[in-house]
Amino acid sequence: MSFLVRNARFAARPVLASRIMPSRAFTSSGVRSLKEDDRHTPDLAEQNERHKQDQLQKQKEGKGHWKPELASNSEEAVAADRQAGDHSIDELQKKTAKHAEEKHKHGTSQDPGL
Question: Where is this region: Disordered (predicted)?
């Protein structure tokens, strides 16, 4: 009985508005895109589709490889960290220049990566 007497006085008290926490009725999230830097590229969808089809074709032929064009910036950074080796700066610069020339010639990556 004492339980009812104790709780009855709290039940009769008006609820204060300051105790009610407002909840968020509307939330939004950022746009999910592959590359964060490519947002303003006019033909981004066409480029992504071309790289995707190229990757699918190479996988069917058994020549599939990781494509940095289809990765986010963070995925590309992780892949670069994992592939880091004991190469000299000159060697890496030559390799990068060669890769850029090949990529520019063909319009998409043609080799299994750097």
Answer: 21-114
